[in-house]
Amino acid sequence: MKVKVSFGVTGLLLLGLPSCAALFTPPSVEIVEVGLVSLGLTSGTAAVTLDVTNAGSKDLDLEAFFYEVRVRGPEGADVWTRLAGGVHSERIVIPGEEVQRVTIPFPFEYRALGAALRSFLSSGEVPYRVHGRVSVRRFGTSFDVPFRSEGILIP
Length: 155
Prior knowledge:
Elements: H1 2-23, E1 28-39, E2 43-54, E3 60-72, E4 80-88, E5 92-94, E6 98-109, H2 114-123, E7 126-138, E8 141-153
Antiparallel strand pairs: 1-2, 2-6, 3-4, 3-5, 3-7, 7-8
């Protein structure tokens, strides 16, 4: 009998997990700014600033940000060159119903700037795309929330 009772309790717990997940509101991620931070002899650092909104009432545990930055060359709208990409592994906890501004620095080398430089020289601006995902830890597991934005950087 004890085995039957413990199986019944386990079964009820397992049935309850999907309803808990249904109550979870995923965060929204908005790109606020893309800008230049510093320049060196052979490389530089830029940054993407995100507003991460926790619409839920419980704390939100962010484990990492995965990102890629592309720039459009002057050749045409369909030619995008990868400028930088990587993982920003800063753990951030956002309290319920709050917005946290997160800045992700990304290093780049000048040799990767060819498309951006050509675009800037021909038009005075650099169209960019930033996309990625935020890894969120919830209910003992991790899942990803994507983000994407396009804009024009005018140095």
